Amino acid sequence: MNKMLMFDALREATDEEMLRDPRVFVLGEDVGHYGGSYKVTKGLHAKYGDLRVLDTPIAENSFTGLAIGAAITGLKPIVEGMNMSFLLLAFNQISNNAGMLRYTSGGNFKIPLVIRGPGGVGRQLGAEHSQRLEAYFQAIPGLKIVACSTPYNAKGLLKAAIRDDNPVIFFEHVLLYNLQENIPKHEYILPLNKAELVRTGQDITILTYSRMRHHVVQAVDELVSQGYNPEIIDLISLKPLDIDTIVKSVKKTHLVLIVEECMKTAGIGAELIAQINETVFYELDAPIIRLSSQDLPTPYNGQLEQATVIHPHQIIRAVEDLMITKKTFY
Fold this sequence. Notes:
Heterodimer of an alpha and a beta chain. InterPro entries: THDP-binding, Transketo_C/PFOR_II, Transketolase-like_Pyr-bd, Transketolase_C. It catalyses: N(6)-[(R)-lipoyl]-L-lysyl-[protein] + pyruvate + H(+) = N(6)-[(R)-S(8)-acetyldihydrolipoyl]-L-lysyl-[protein] + CO2. GO terms for molecular function: metal ion binding; pyruvate dehydrogenase (acetyl-transferring) activity. By secondary structure, the chain is α/β, with parallel strands linked by helices. It has two domains: about 1-185, Thiamin diphosphate (ThDP)-binding fold, Pyr/PP domains (Rossmann fold, 3-Layer(aba) Sandwich); about 195-330, 3-Layer(aba) Sandwich (Rossmann fold). The protein has helices at about 5-20, 45-50, 60-70, 90-100, 100-105, 135-140, 150-165, 210-225, 245-255, 270-280, 300-310, 310-330; strands spanning about 1-5, 25-30, 55, 75-80, 115-120, 145, 170-175, 180-185, 195-200, 205-210, 230-235, 235-240, 255-265, 290-295. A seven-stranded mixed sheet has the order 3-2-4-5-7-6-12, sandwiched between helices. Strands 9-11-10-13-14 form a five-stranded mixed sheet, sandwiched between helices. A two-stranded antiparallel ribbon has the order 1-8. Helix 1 packs parallel to helix 7 (about 150-165) and helix 8 crosses helix 12.
């Protein structure tokens, strides 16, 4: 096992796949000589050169379109968004080209494309650098969406995304890059369409992903000391949702709490509630509760910024309230 930071795990995954397959290349702003804004591509330019680690102009629509065209020809581009918020400038290319071309070409084209980079609410990065775009992209047909949460799953998921023949939007949280974890020295690949059962339990199912996984784990440590036994599921795959794993858990616990950093209105939690209600509504002993970020642009002010996202004490209170609700009716 090697103890590794998450940005190093992502860099190692990229390096291994570039070494394994000469069709893999990286492009984006400052990915070359500078090594990427968060050093995910550090050292790759010196190893692979200009043709496989391309520094681009500040023109997201142009270089994302270039990457889609390269994917059509059989190459395997990895687009790094310096900040995922900037990829809104390439929304047309992602939705009308990346998501559609395999279908509108009658299957003649494959789009083996990865679009990855930092997102989420950071620390005083301001509204335009703290957006949560997962729900924006979830509505686009033809995309796969993955949110890594640990160095271990970051490496295994990125390698799987690079090898996939479909466009994958790969979300990394800006505050998790310095997270450390032991990673196996041997190669491993993780499935892109499976949730992770982080903790088994009987009392309540807590669904979460990305940075909120760690807030949930903190909250559950306290809840366990109080005698509760929650089950934690890290969604990982935001599109498609691993509804089978979710349903299996709900049939056991009969209570659901969703903890997300996405906006409440039309967020990932909203889609989760819809699918759970469609599938196992009569297994629920109480209405599903979702804890989501405030529906407003993230403030620059540090205290206001913290007030917009969910924290462990709110998770603890929500679990306690749900358990009380269940006891009231049963």
